[in-house]
Amino acid sequence: MDNLMKNNRIIYIDILRIISILAVIILHITADLLTRTNDFNTIAWWISNVLNSIARFAVPVFFMISGAMILRTEVTSYKEFYKKRIVPLAIPLVSWSLIYDAYNQYFILKSNLTILQFFSDFAYRLIVDRNYIHLWFLYAIIAIYVTVPLVSRLVKACSEKELRYYLTLWFAISIVYRFISDMVFRVASESIYVPILNIPLFMGYLGYFILGYYLFHYELPAKVKSLLFNIGVVSFFVTPVATYFASFYSGVLDEMFYGNYSITTFFMAVGLFLYFQEKNTLLSEKLNYKLQRLIGSVAKASFSIYLIHLLVELTISRRIESEGAAPETVFTLLLNLGMVFVVSYIVVKILNLNKFVTHVLFGGRG
After folding, report:
1. pTM exceeds 0.85 for this model
2. Whole-angstrom Cα distance, residue 34 to residue 20?
3. How far is the C-alpha of 211 from the C-alpha of 216, rounded, in Å?
């Protein structure tokens, strides 16, 4: 298979992982200013809005990558699957929930909770996913992984035509219907609900999961690829502009086009996935082995970086001023992005030197 590296890594999947974790960091760096001010005409707000908008592909791409990689495997033992795939996610979920909750309580809120009160509060927050904003992803991916032993059999039993049928219905219900519903609510202040479209299997992140599997295993016609890619490119420009007008209309930041099921987010994610998939052979030929190994190393650390990066951001990032000039704003944003990414990667690699720490904090991942 020509898309495999010498060490059995897939170069375009690794690059997508790196780009996506950088995008996640951008989302969190820019979120502070976007939620802090409702002055949508400042240069700083526009720069943050543009960067936040074009980074919205990150979460869908992560789900697509997971689907492409996990659903191709054969699940022969439920026990082994849980041990290999789900436990390594559950352990970091508990560990990082504890770390972020302790940091929030004692360093940010300056709480006087006793140890007993803290752990009682922590247990509740862990159950209901209220510990820290980015850890929701672990709850979502664990929930999907629980279905993998069945879903993997389902997708392998389906023909390409049947998978297209599933994805078309999922797109209509999870993306198009949601978009129409959001538009109607903003224009008429009335929610629309069509009971016949309430089909659980065709709603949620499972669609992105199966979409990743489909795009990984099946070759789309050239015209379809071109269409999806071009709509994706247009979406990168539409998202910040549409967010501005929606926010200006409502008077506060409107995240309709920021959502993971936003129609523009969908096409950005698909377009980016297809672009790097198409360039895979070229990338494999042009990048030397050492560079591919470095890319593989960073990609392997992407999950760990995801877990730790907000703690690093809280510690070292610089505040973006809402009235800052363009050069100052861009410099601060890029400086924060570079520092958070590099420091997170280095800390992860240092922590990985101890296998027990790697197991407890990162589920054994590098």
Report:
1. yes
2. 20
3. 8
